[in-house]
Amino acid sequence: MRRWRRVAVRGPSMSPTLADGDVVLARFGAPVRRGDVVLVRWSARPGQLSVKRAVRPEGAGWWVLGDNPYGSTDSGLLGPAEVLAVVGARLWPTPHRLRRTPDRG
Q: Which of 1, 11, 74, 100 has the most CB atoms lying inside 10 A of its own CB?
């Protein structure tokens, strides 16, 4: 069974793709592919959820990066992340599907 959830984006890490305050639709149980925007958590910060870009599988998790290299705390600092859901669309303020990007790493 696949579940959907609205998620509010906080911070500048996914700029220019997503901005602080955007609301996105995350699909739990969806297969992850390189370049997908994903909802993740790190073992070092289990209470924090983050929206990042999936770069490559790494061990039991994924190496993920923010689209904004100057304003993102991501796998470069925290290591591989557990992907919880794939983000398929921005719902607010301007609804649109999110595109996968080419491999970054």
A: 74
